[in-house]
């Protein structure tokens, strides 16, 4: 009977009830959990909440906790497209872009037995956009020393351009070993966008102690377009013109129009 006459205590959550009812606490310790006066409480069909924290406020706190847990779980489960290994930079003081000449093969500089990553730039010396990109690409080794950076003239490596679908320059590909994994497709080619691209693809952060200097931006890629004669294009045009002229002269209809050709047929 005494238990029935005792007022029933209500708690905000089941966890609070378990903690209070399962431990030896005096009334002073649990007093803050219960409203001092009935008018200080707001009750609905399910729970009673103190005046200091209404149901809407409690729901906001609960939603905030849920969103925080979802955010933390998302961060923990976040994976990157390219799982790169960092290259060993022990003993290296200078970091720069390796520019391949016409006789060097890109595959020889990409380690197929390793998971290290390389960022490869396809460019041409006469392209204005390649020249504008050059200072930013030159500075990348200073920002990401754990990644290899290479560049090659697409006009000198036409087979590689065809192999990797390089139909326009500049074109930037991220390799893991010898396998192309991602392509930089943004039109805004700056050090900031390139840094963001590498971080989003690999998870690598910019070196904490990196300081890009003017010397880092200067070379080795030229920042001014160079005018030069494309001898391959010249020889291709000459070959087409010569072959077309030869084919026209060998046509029978043309031979009849040339003076002296009909005598050969009469004989």
UniProtKB/TrEMBL annotation:
Gene behind this protein: TXNDC15
Record field: transmembrane: 231-249
Q: Mind telling me which InterPro entries this protein's record contains?
A: Thioredoxin-like_sf (IPR036249), Thioredoxin_domain (IPR013766), TXNDC15 (IPR042418)
| Record keyword Manganese present | no
Q: Which GO terms describe its biological process?
A: cilium assembly
- GO CC terms for this protein? cilium
**Entry's SUPFAM superfamilies?**
Thioredoxin-like
User: What is the protein's given name?
Assistant: Thioredoxin domain-containing protein
Q: Where is the Thioredoxin domain?
A: 114-199
Per its UniProt entry, which superkingdom is the organism in?
A: Eukaryota
Q: Alphabetically list the UniProt keywords.
A: Membrane, Transmembrane, Transmembrane helix
- Cite the PANTHER family for this sequence: THIOREDOXIN DOMAIN-CONTAINING PROTEIN 15
């Amino acid at each position: 009977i005494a238990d029935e006459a005792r007022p029933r205590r209500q708690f905000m959550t089941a966890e609070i009830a378990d903690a209070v009812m399962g431990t030896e606490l005096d009334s002073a310790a649990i007093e803050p959990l219960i409203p001092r006066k009935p008018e200080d409480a707001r009750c609905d069909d399910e729970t009673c909440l103190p005046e200091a924290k209404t149901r809407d406020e409690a729901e906001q706190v609960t939603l905030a906790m849920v969103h925080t847990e979802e955010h933390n779980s998302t961060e923990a489960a976040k994976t990157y497209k390219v799982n790169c290994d960092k290259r060993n930079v022990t003993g290296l003081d200078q970091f720069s872009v390796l520019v391949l000449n016409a006789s060097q093969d890109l595959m020889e500089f990409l380690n197929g037995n390793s998971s290290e990553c390389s960022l490869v730039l396809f460019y041409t010396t006469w392209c204005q956009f390649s020249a504008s990109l050059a200072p930013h690409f030159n500075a990348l080794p200073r920002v990401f020393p754990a990644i290899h950076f290479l560049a090659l003239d697409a006009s000198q490596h036409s087979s590689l351009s065809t192999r990797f679908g390089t139909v326009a320059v500049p074109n930037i590909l991220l390799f893991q070993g010898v396998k192309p994994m991602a392509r930089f497709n943004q039109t805004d080619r700056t050090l900031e966008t390139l840094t963001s691209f590498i971080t989003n693809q690999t998870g690598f952060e910019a070196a904490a102690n990196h300081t890009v200097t003017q010397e880092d931006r200067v070379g080795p890629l030229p920042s001014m377009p160079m005018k030069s004669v494309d001898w391959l294009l010249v020889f291709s045009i000459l070959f087409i013109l010569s072959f077309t002229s030869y084919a026209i002269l060998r046509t029978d209809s043309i031979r009849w129009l040339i003076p002296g050709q009909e005598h050969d047929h009469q004989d």
